[in-house]
Structure formats: C-alpha cells, structure tokens
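Quick review question:
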C-alpha cells in the first residue's frame, strides 16, 4: 500500500484468532468442526556427522549436524461428540487396513464470524488415534472426541 509520501509501506501482520476449525475431505459427507487444535507437528531429526582425518589417530576435522530421519506430520483436534460417526468409521477402515483410509483434506481456521482466516492442506491424511474423554455419570458436561491424524505433507495457505 502506498503511504502519503508515495512510498510503499508493509501492512503489519495480525495474529489469527480462531473460534473453530473445519476439516473437509472426500471421505466425510459434510465438514467436521472442531473446537480445539491441540497442535500441528512436523519434525526432522538432526543427525550428527563426524569426519576424522585419516592416519591422525582419530583427530576430528569436522563435526556437524545434518538432516536426519523425518517424522510424519501430525494434527491433533478436539470436539464435542455430536453423534456423527464418520470419523470413527474412517478410523475403523484404517484399523482394518483398507486402502480408502488415506485422503487429501483441508483444515480451515475460522474466526468468530465464521470467516476463513487460513488453511492447512493435508496430503495423505488418516486418523491414527481416537479418544473419548469427559465421561462422568450424572455430569452434564460435554463429552469430547480427540482425534490424532497423520499425513504425508502439510502446506499452509494464508488467508487471501
């Protein structure tokens, strides 16, 4: 954007606030909404490399860390149980080793007005872990479903 003196100025980035998270993919008949993003994790381990000089009784000439083993990205989401069993059925297909367990999906960050503020494109996504928590007899609290997904790649798409 141009300032009053004609020079270009950069807009200051504003932190995204999220009210809910929407997961969309072809294995779900409608998007699944989540109240909490427990985390997105992507990791490359560092591997130590040591080079020694030949004939010098093991004198180290170079010590460095290089890219090592990669771990598959994970996404952890939490929502109130709503009676829709599609994610459980999807997880059951994975447990049974069916090929239709992997899919490409979009995790959209929505603000309080429901406007998309950014999205993560998740390739080769599948639910690796399902948990239900918050159960207590006689309690009127919310029963939560925690889902951990694994994927082959994650790409962030900022809001447009």
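Suggested answer, residue by residue:
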């Amino acid at each position: 954007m141009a300032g009053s003196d004609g020079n270009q100025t950069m807009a200051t980035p504003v932190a995204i606030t999220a009210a809910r998270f929407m997961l969309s993919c072809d294995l779900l008949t409608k998007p699944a909404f989540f109240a909490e993003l427990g985390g997105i994790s992507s990791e490359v381990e560092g591997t130590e490399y040591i080079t020694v000089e030949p004939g010098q009784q093991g004198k180290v000439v170079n010590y460095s860390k290089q890219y090592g083993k990669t771990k598959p990205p994970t996404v952890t989401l939490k929502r109130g149980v709503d009676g829709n069993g599609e994610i459980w059925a999807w997880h059951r297909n994975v447990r049974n080793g069916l090929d239709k367990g992997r899919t490409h999906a979009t995790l959209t960050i929505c603000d309080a007005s429901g406007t998309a503020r950014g999205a993560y494109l998740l390739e080769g996504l599948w639910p690796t872990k399902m948990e239900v928590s918050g159960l207590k007899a006689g309690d009127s609290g919310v029963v939560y479903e925690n889902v951990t997904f694994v994927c082959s790649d994650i790409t962030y798409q900022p809001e447009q």
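Why it works: The domain at 20-43+71-158 is CATH 2.30.110.20 (Pnp Oxidase; Chain A). The CA atoms of residues 76 and 148 lie 4 Å apart.
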